[in-house]
Specification:
188 residues; alpha/beta; Maf protein; seven-stranded mixed beta sheet
Length: 188
């Protein structure tokens, strides 16, 4: 497979698990890049810009490292509105109520830096939620799971029971479209 060393610019346990699952040789270094100022961008442009910022942040702070840098950012969009991580439980309730009975898009942008080369791209997956009852939403929020996830849910956890179907890359919904990334790494 792909055996070059990668710096994963992420603290996400889901992204680290995907990298481990597929046997990538990587080190995780969380990026603290500025994530403001993308609210008025189209969803695919917002996630690509955020991923690019994260990768550049790592490159600027660790210029001695020669590994490939991989960064990603995931956002949920409903009718063009970006849904990032909820600010609080009320915000999580608002997001999950809005997603109830709808289909929405999950966008993950990724950036790959290697030497002087930079590739920035994204993937989009359609997710279809069944109608949710108020009590279900409240019970899910009480688990604490939605608080660190775009769109206030994790498909791989308890919120998986809300999902009727997925069209596209399931791993993209988890935060890392690994097939597209692997193909790009091979080309580089």
């Amino acid at each position: 497979m792909f055996n070059k060393r990668i710096i994963l610019a992420s603290a996400s346990p889901r992204r680290r698990e995907i990298m481990k699952q597929f046997g990538f040789n990587f080190e995780s270094i969380p990026s603290d890049a500025d994530e403001s100022g993308v609210d008025n961008l189209a969803p695919h442009k917002a996630v690509m810009e955020l991923a690019r910022r994260k990768a550049v942040w790592i490159k600027e702070r660790y210029p001695e490292k020669e590994e490939i840098i991989l960064a990603a950012d995931t956002l949920v969009a409903l009718d063009g509105e970006l849904l990032g991580k909820p600010k609080d439980e009320e915000d999580a309730f608002r997001m999950l109520s809005a997603l109830s009975g709808t289909n929405h898009q999950v966008y993950t942008g990724y950036a790959i830096l290697q030497g002087g080369k930079t590739v920035v791209d994204y993937d989009c997956t359609q997710v279809f939620f069944r109608p949710l009852e108020r009590e279900e939403i409240e019970a899910y929020i009480a688990t604490g799971e939605p608080m660190d996830k775009a769109g206030a849910y994790g498909i791989q956890e308890k919120a998986g029971i809300f999902v009727r179907r997925v069209e596209g890359d399931y791993l993209n919904v988890l935060g890392l479209p690994i097939c597209k990334i692997y193909e790009q790494l091979k080309r580089m």
